[in-house]
Here is the input.
Amino acid sequence: MVPDASFFQHGWEPTGPHLERLFGSICERMGLDPDGVGLYVGESSIETQSNHTIASAGGSAAGLFHRDEQGRPVVGVSLDLIDEPITLTATLAHELAHVRLLHERRLTGEEEDHELTTEATAGLLGFGVFSANSAVRERDVQFSTGTGWSVGQLGYFRVQTWGALLGLLAHHRGEDRPPWASALTGSARRTMSATQRWLARR
Here is the structure.
């Protein structure tokens, strides 16, 4: 999957119907019934829901997975992401990968590397380009005294890690020049190409 018009077929607006449509598309791609997973958007920087916390960008997570009182899986995303559809997609894919791994009992959540496994799962199920392009998050910020700019990491992998992982995936599939690689930005694309070249020599 790549973040182009074929994925955002109806464009993107920060509205409930667009979010629900996006959520449904990601669920279906990841083999989930969207009616079987709850979704909510966390207000501001911190939101508490069912005794769980969802935190927005910064040093914290932008999404959350938990189960409700009936045991139904629920994912939450920060309101901060609503104007960033690519980052929003990557975050939803990560949380829905938790559903595939934790809710479906492939992992317990006690594994030391379960978040890294979850991140990789989201990528392998079709959302690696979204995640790689969102790994470095640059934003304009507004202060009481003026405006500024901030940059930070989103997710559990650095951009270069995503590039290496996607290079390994392409090599495993026998794809020398996969069409989706052109959608990668910056160092993710360069690292992917370097990984493919290194693997081809082995």
Observations:
- Confidence is low (pLDDT under 50) at residues 44-60, 138-152.
